[in-house]
Specification:
With about 160 residues, the protein is an all-beta fold. This is 3-keto-alpha-glucoside-1,2-lyase/3-keto-2-hydroxy-glucal hydratase domain-containing protein. InterPro entries: AL/BT2_dom (IPR010496).
């Protein structure tokens, strides 16, 4: 059976933060209602304003890639449009082994926003949103969370730290 679950903090005051957690990916799943897609995996939400406005970093994807994206209002994907902010980098999934995941977001003095994704203390994706893709950077504080699509995953030690 396919699975989708979502953890989102109710607090709406996370701005320049790093999110860390331990991730155990026990394998990917599918079902008739949730068929396999390349982006199945784990997604860390940063500066979540709404379902249509957020940054996210994807790791442990079905296609063995990592990427950082921005979603903005207006479009056919649940009321929004996704924009790639980083390149689609290769990163193999370590099934059955605990991994340390870290995602960070911070404002820069020039008005841009930098998002980084780490796996086991190694930088695997980085992007700076200067507004040239998908409109202005998301500079407002927001929520943080995790979503897993078609992934049998366990999480522990979820921590949010100001940077």
């Amino acid at each position: 059976m396919g699975s989708i679950f979502f953890i989102l903090f109710i607090l709406n005051d996370f701005k320049n933060v790093s999110v860390t957690f331990d991730l155990l990916n026990e394998g990917l799943t599918t079902s008739a209602s949730t068929p396999a897609v390349d982006w199945d995996g784990v997604h860390v939400f940063l500066r979540y304003q709404s379902e249509e406005s957020l940054y996210y970093a994807s790791i442990n994807r079905r296609d063995n890639k990592v990427i950082i994206k921005k979603k903005v209002p207006g479009g056919s994907s649940n009321g929004g449009t996704y924009y790639n902010l980083s390149t689609l980098n290769s990163s193999s999934v370590s099934y059955g082994s605990w991994q340390k995941v870290k995602a960070s977001v911070k404002d820069n003095s020039d008005g841009s926003v930098t998002i980084q994704l780490f796996a086991n203390d190694k930088l695997v994706a980085s992007a700076t949103d200067n507004g040239s893709v998908g409109g202005a950077p998301i500079r407002n504080q927001g929520k943080v969370g995790i979503r897993a699509d078609n992934t049998n995953a366990k999480f522990k030690n979820f921590t949010v730290t100001s940077i």
